[in-house]
# Entry
Amino acid sequence: MIFRLTFLGTSASVPSAERNHPALLVEAGGHRILVDCGEGTQRQLLRSGAGFRRLHRLLLTHAHFDHILGIPGLFSTLRLRQSEDLLTVHGGPDTLDVVMRMLAGLWGEGGAPVPLTLEPLTPGRFFQADEFAIDCFQVRHRDTDSYGFVFETPPRRHLRAEHLTSLGVPDGPIRKQLVEGRSITLANGRKVAPEDVLGPPERGKKLVIIGDTDSTEGIAEHVRGADLLVIEATFLERDAAMARDYGHLTAAQAASLAATSNVKQLVLTHISGRYADAEILAEAVRAFPNSRIAADLDVLTI
Ligand SMILES: [Zn+2]
Ligand SMILES: [Zn+2]
# Structure
């Protein structure tokens, strides 16, 4: 089980020639989940090769325009493609209110061009598939109703090859039964229980996505142990006062969060055109060596 991330847009509130407004596609276990939908996201879906199919779920970090203005265009295109799939939009109640008003302005009260359900977030688990779950937690970002997201696969126990060999368990579907927790009986009549051949539980994969945020305070508990943390880094430390005023992080703050939360890899996004990527990266790696700056159309798997 892996998470595949496609960075569709990596700019801060003003896009650049290289960076589109924020959006991130997460693919996992046959699910495709869009996180934020800045202006031009539909074209980025095409440029990345991801396309529009099976786009059933949209998670919104907050309702600032750089994160949501792509919604009407994307929905219009889905209608033109005669999509009849139900789309579920998850966001904080205030965020969904902005989305509803935006759609009402274009398609009339309660109107939308595609079948739609809006599901308000409350902290905790809001999506559970066979292969993974998504939890959300509140994030402080100016006066918005902001959420961060934790994608996690369940812990797994692996078969231990040496035990399989010594007990004489043959290859094939019989091994799958053991992984699924069922006992088996071998051709020689010997019974083998899952406990006889499974190793200790290993932690699943954990992906944390955080949009814009005022500070890293109170976030560490949600980020802890993540295989991958995606978070904004709009400013550099030399502009820390401005970062505070605008409700954003510096690269150093984001990297310190990763360093103190036992994160494996850090990807910085929501990149401002005022800095060179190299400057941002240099500031981040000082606090957390395994940092990288996201670029539009980057693909990462964990
Ligand atoms: Zn933003
Ligand atoms: Zn914002």
Notes: The radius of gyration is 22 Å. Residues 32 and 55 are 6 Å apart (CA to CA). Residues 62, 64, 141, 212 surround zinc ion (ligand 2) (CB under 6 Å).
